Amino acid sequence: MVPRGAILNRDLSHIQEVDLTAAADIQEFVSHSWYDYAGGKDIGLHPYQGETRLNYSGPAPPYQHLDTSASYSWLKSPRWKGHAMETGPLARVLMLYASGHEPTRDLANKALAQLNLPLEALFSTMGRTAARALECKIFADAMPQWYESLMANIAAGDVSTFNSKLWDPASWPRRSQGVGFLEAPRGSLAHWIVIEDGKISNYQAVVPTTWNAGPRDAAGTEGPYEAALKGHHLLDPKQPLEILRTIHSFDPCLACAVHVIDPDGEELIRVRVQ
């Protein structure tokens, strides 16, 4: 229902095609992350070639603030063709709107008219929050038809739930790779895997919060969180509710940005499965 693609520069007249397997299209950077790449911190790696080498260089806690000119996050910085991309409800609603999905256009235009706001207002904290409500209505309206299709398929004898063609590892080539991707509530989720001689040789997951909360890349481009905070006016700097409101609009899940290390910044345990 939601087409795969990307929207650049808020241009809803053109949906960019996305290829999740193109090595030059999707890359992760660690220029401002507590990781190292063998080829240097400023290169980008596609997840098939991804590396996860911990290198904590931040201050010893407790600390007042981080040095954002250096490394300051456990998240990497994923980029699509060099662009920082936002994922989640707003991205889905905009993709539906841009593709000409009439229920989305009607509902979004009605909401904007009630608020007396232009279409451009969707690119905001308000728009991100509104999109979460809009897509609930859009998907709920579509679910009865999906359910009817499911029941019709089952009645016709189609009860398959997966493609078992490559289920047996004996059918795999010596080296194989693939990507599994879907839309999670927070946005685009993809897991890349490389298998050699029947064993996993590399596994990289790029989750929605990585796209949204990742730090700056080698070119200094901010991720969506940081970009969304630009220009905020704080009514009371001691109670920065405006910052919280914007970050909360992304529905952050920072479990993927947490690592447990010792006081010297070293990892505590590593498990190897033979």
Topology:
Layout: E1 26-29, E2 35-36, E3 53-54, E4 77-80, H1 89-98, H2 102-115, H3 125-155, E5 175-184, E6 187-196, E7 199-206, H4 208-213, H5 224-229, H6 241-248
Antiparallel strand pairs: 1-4, 2-3, 5-6, 6-7
Helix pairs in contact: 1-3, 2-3
Please describe what this structure looks like.
This protein has 274 residues and is an alpha+beta fold. The protein has one domain (1-274): Cytochrome-c3 Hydrogenase, chain B, CATH 1.10.645.10. 27% of the residues lie in helices and 15% in strands. The protein contains six helices and seven strands, in the order ββββαααβββααα. The strands form three sheets. It has a three-stranded antiparallel sheet. The longest helix is centred in the middle third of the chain and has 31 residues, at 125-155. The protein is globular, with a radius of gyration of 21 Å. The model has no long low-confidence stretch (mean pLDDT 93).
